[in-house]
Structure formats: C-alpha cells, structure tokens
Design a protein that fits this description.
By secondary structure, the protein is an all-alpha fold. The chain has a domain of 108 residues. Helices cover 72% and strands 0% of the residues. α3 packs antiparallel against α4.
Length: 169
C-alpha cells in the first residue's frame, strides 16, 4: 500500500516536472541566454534653419540684451568680490561688453553715443584689471568703478528710459 502511494506520487511528481520544464519552448531554448541586440535608433533628419534673417522687434531684443548685460555685470562684480580666477572675470568682461555693443546697435544715434562712453570706460577697466590682477587694492578700486558704471547704465539706459529711442540699424 505504501509502495503504491510512493509510486503514484513519484509518477505525479515526474509528470509535473516534465510539464514545467518543457513549457512552450524546447528545453534547450528555455535555458540558453539570448544575445542582446543593440537598440536601433532611427536616424533623425534635421533641416537646418537660418535664424539670422528673423529679427526680434527692437524693444524685445533690447530688453533681452539689457537683462543679459545686467546679469553678466552683477556676476562680474560678484567674482571680483570673491577673488575668483582670472578666466572667469575675463569671460564676464567679454560678455558685458558684447551685450552692451548689442544694446548700442538698437539705440538711436544720440543714445548710442552716450552708451559708447560707458563701453569705453569698461574697456579701460578691463585693461587695468588685466594689468593689476594680483593687486587687491587696485581690484577694489576697479570693482567700485564698475559698480558706478552699473548704476549709471541702470539709471540712464533702463528699458523705461530708452523705449522711445529704439530702432534697428
């Protein structure tokens, strides 16, 4: 009796294992790893667009350049206060001058000449900075002059002051 139950349970277990192992695929396919195929990405076709012909309206462009200038000038003052490295300060000077030049392009002749004076002051301060990078007393003097230029430009060239003097050249 005990042997009959053992045989039945053994046969049942054997049949159960065969069903589980066999499954839908062959045993060989079931236990062999499949090679991973690299995912194929569709190649994007980009059509180049020329944005140089599309100009923003003068007021929007001026406002953009004014905000860029203001943030770069503030960053310049901050880096000079912290005593950051030469490259960072030099980059800030370049960006300040670039954005002021772009602002000047949008202004009328009279306002552009006024802004040119401040641009020349900043260029002079940049030359002084390059000469006196290691001397902290001169850096403080340069920084205070830059703060004065920042205040003057904010005072005379904010968007509300020049919105009637904007034109593309």
């Amino acid at each position: 009796m005990f042997e009959v139950k053992m045989k039945r349970s053994f046969i049942f277990l054997l049949v159960f294992l065969i069903i589980i192992i066999s499954g839908c695929e062959s045993v060989r396919k079931k236990f062999i790893r499949k090679r991973k195929e690299p995912e194929r990405q569709e190649e994007m076709i980009l059509v180049p667009q020329d944005y140089s012909k599309q100009r923003l309206p003068a007021d929007i462009a001026y406002l953009n350049y004014y905000n860029y200038w203001k943030s770069w000038h503030t960053e310049l003052l901050q880096f000079m206060q912290e005593g950051s490295n030469f490259k960072k300060v030099k980059t800030c000077f370049e960006q300040v001058l670039l954005n002021l030049e772009r602002m000047k392009e949008i202004l009328t002749q009279q306002k552009a000449e006024q802004l040119a004076e401040y641009i020349s002051k900043i260029k002079q301060l940049e030359i002084e900075f390059e000469d006196d990078f290691k001397i902290s007393i001169n850096l403080n003097r340069i920084r205070s002059k830059l703060e004065g230029v920042l205040n003057d430009i904010n005072k005379h060239f904010s968007f509300s002051k020049v919105k009637n003097n904007l034109e593309w050249k």
